[in-house]
């Protein structure tokens, strides 16, 4: 498993994935509840998946440079 060092801590790709999932869920809930308080849960899950997916898309483009 590939890892990187961040200020002396060993961070694996799995931990980064878990962090993105948790933060994506938190931001999805906050954004949906702020702008569309009556929205169904499926929209929150969709936004959550979109946010996590876009994190990986942006990481891909950043790593290509």
Description:
- The chain is of the alpha+beta class and 65 residues long.
- It has one domain (3-64).
- 72% of the residues lie in helices and 12% in strands.
- The chain has helices at residues 13-35, 41-64, and strands spanning 3-6, 9-12.
- Strand 1 and strand 2 form a beta hairpin.
- Helix 1 (13-35) packs across helix 2.
- The radius of gyration is 14 Å and the shape is elongated.
Short descriptors:
65 residues, 12% strand, alpha+beta, two-stranded antiparallel ribbon
Write the layout of secondary structure elements.
Layout: E1 3-6, E2 9-12, H1 13-35, H2 41-64
Helix pairs in contact: 1-2
Describe the structure concisely.
This protein has 65 residues and is α+β, with helices and mostly antiparallel strands.
Low-confidence stretches: none
Total DSSP E strands: 2
Largest sheet: 2 strands, antiparallel
Placed side by side, the strands forming the largest sheet appear as 1-2
- Give, in order, the helices and strands: EEHH
What would you call the structural class?
Answer: alpha+beta
User: What proportion strand?
Assistant: 5-15%
Count of DSSP helices? 2
């Amino acid at each position: 498993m590939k890892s990187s060092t961040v200020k002396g801590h060993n961070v694996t790709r799995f931990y980064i994935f878990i962090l993105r999932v948790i933060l994506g869920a938190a931001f999805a809930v906050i954004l949906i509840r702020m702008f569309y308080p009556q929205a169904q849960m499926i929209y929150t899950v969709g936004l959550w998946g979109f946010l996590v997916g876009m994190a990986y898309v942006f990481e891909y483009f950043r790593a290509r440079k």
